[in-house]
Amino acid sequence: MNVVADTLVGTLGIATPLLFATLGGVVSERSGVINLGLESYLLAGAFGAAAGTLAAGSLLVGVGVGLLAAGAVALAHGILATRTRADHVVTGVALNLLVDAATIAALVSLYGTKGSSPLFSDGLVEALGASKVLGLSPLTWLSLVAIPLVVVALARTKAGLRLRAVGENPRCAESLGVSAARVRLLSVVTAGLITGLGGVFLAFDVGSFSKHMAGGRGYLALACVVIGKWRPRWAAAAAIGFAFLKALANQLQTAARIPDEIPRMLPYVITLVVLSGIVGRARPPAALGKPLA
Amino acid sequence: MILALSAALVAGAVLRGPGEAVAPEPGKKRVAVVLSVGGLGDRSFNDMAYEGLLRAEEELGVVIAYGEPAAMSEDERYLAFYAEQGFDLVFAVGFLMHSALEKVAPKYPDTQFAIIDSVIDQPNIASVVFREHEGSYLVGALAARKSESGVIGIVKGMDAPLLMKFEHGYRQGFHAERGRLGKEPGTVLSMVAGSFADPNRGKELTLVMVGEGADVVYQAAGRTGNGVIMGAKEAGIYAIGVDANQNHERPGTVLTSMVKKVDVAVLETCRDLVEGRLAGGMHSLGVAEGGVGWALDANNRALVSADDEAHLADLAAQIASGTIVVEDLPGSDERTPGSDE
């Protein structure tokens, strides 16, 4: 068996939801909105994808409903972050708890169960299999293509420039005629849509929704944003790096018995090291977490 | 606003009472079941306990009630509520309720309690546990008959003694059957997901085992196991379900399920109550008592030959009679709490 190829394919599968959430996190945070709500976007995206697919019998409808659900959660988040003086950290965490409970309530009302949605039919599973390109889900390829797209959009477009300006100094941006509130709101919704694709991937990967299925990936993505010092290419590199470590640990589990806790701890240890300033200086956007007046 | 809303949601859940009182009917025993967190609709443990309760109502004529605590911190209050109401028998479903029942039972010495899947040494508690290793032996033997590569796997939710018991029985059944077939012992791969709620991780691990040649994968991993079944489906290998009969989840992929008959446990405990012979202490249900076994139905009929079926029936009879002794793991009845919620 080809262990190297297996590890690489494993890495890209694990990286997909993480990459989407990490890029979403960068977009939100560079506009100045601390985003602890990534976990809720993933969950909403996964639930929407499963519910849409099951209702319509179509994967494309699933993608659409997943994006809609994640976008709606992000819109609510964005309104709270721009129209009120609510603390970004608290609202993000509250949103995670709320969406987690809401998906379970929706499971009960739609399917009469509290654990997981019905499974996709064999036909849909075959369609998922047939949609693969070189053995990988189209969403995995999209997550890779999204990296340069976000890099270029932030660095070289007018919208990206405005977004970064609002994240550094919203007053200065306002004085130049840019509505800081609008820019932040749009950034958070964009983050919701990008991260929502990660949620869609989670549901499609296993052909159903099950409660708590984001499994902390949103928090891990936020760690990647910090480790990448809020720059999309390095944040994405961190996400792929952690996915690689996880895939490697999986491969080694049967042989070397590395406790799963070690690869799970590592990202947070590195985050703390980066935040403590031991390796270079981590400089968050200057207006990160500061409510607009 | 959202904070206030979620606070209100939490408060609503906490303040909701254990349910209405059920008036005693002359000459009828009253039985209550307090379900584990998650409640009805889990298609597994809680639903099976409820099923057993309904059968007790129908077959034994007992008056029934059930409660669904919203959080583990509510378990004590629910158990005490039914004891206070004068129920004859109160069930605590699942090892997560171990410490709640341990505290409540001494306060109601005249009430008979029962706990499923855990052992508490108190005179008014009947502890019902399953010999999961025996059922796992049977599915391991079937895996040996179906595996062409001689490599099979198991995904466990966590590294807990209870789950080691599943693995230990599975290994014994697989290796013994390979021996009976005149083949070398073969290999059993074992992986730990670290979660009972992460199906994507279950699939990842399954595909790793497929890469190492596994063609049958057993799971004792809750919802993480849903991903094991999906991974098996994608890779074109067999999966084995657990606890409830999961044969219907992906017909053609799910070879069989190691069923743990919680419904039978509830029904039989109620029968003991009605017939006046219910006592405290440990009641262990294995193959002989029909408490564990392997599932065969229309969904996996095509995967199991008449020969396989007859052979497994024979193995089950030998386990029941004690001709085959499936080794347990010392200490495996110490359940690790907090595995899911």
Structural overview:
The complex is a heterodimer of chains A (293) and B (341). Chain A has 293 residues and is mainly α. Chain A has helices spanning 3-30, 38-56, 59-83, 88-111, 122-130, 138-156, 158-168, 170-175, 180-206, 217-227, 232-256, 261-276. Chain A has one domain (3-276): ABC transporter involved in vitamin B12 uptake, BtuC (Orthogonal Bundle). Chain A has twelve helices and no strands. In chain A, helix 3 packs antiparallel against helix 4 and helix 10 (217-227) packs parallel to helix 12 (261-276). The longest helix of chain A is centred in the first third of the chain and has 28 residues, at 3-30. Chain B is α/β, with parallel strands linked by helices. Chain B has two domains: 28-130 and 262-285, Rossmann fold (3-Layer(aba) Sandwich); 132-260 and 305-321, Response regulator (Rossmann fold, 3-Layer(aba) Sandwich). Helix content of chain B is 40%, strand content 19%. Chain B contains ten helices and twelve strands. Chain B has helices at residues 2-15, 45-60, 75-84, 98-104, 132-146, 161-180, 199-211, 224-235, 262-274, 306-321; strands at residues 30-34, 63-67, 89-93, 112-116, 125-130, 151-156, 187-192, 216-220, 238-243, 254-260, 281-285, 292-294. In chain B, the strands form two sheets. Chain B has a six-stranded parallel β-sheet with strand order 2-1-3-4-5-11, with helices on both faces. In chain B, helix 6 (161-180) links the parallel strand 6 and strand 7 (187-192). In chain B, helix 5 runs antiparallel to helix 10. Mean pLDDT of chain B is 89; it is low at 5-16 and 334-341. Classes of the chains: A mainly alpha (293), B alpha/beta (341). Chains A and B meet through helix 1, helix 4, helix 5, helix 9 and helix 11 of A and helix 1, strand 7, helix 7 and helix 8 of B.
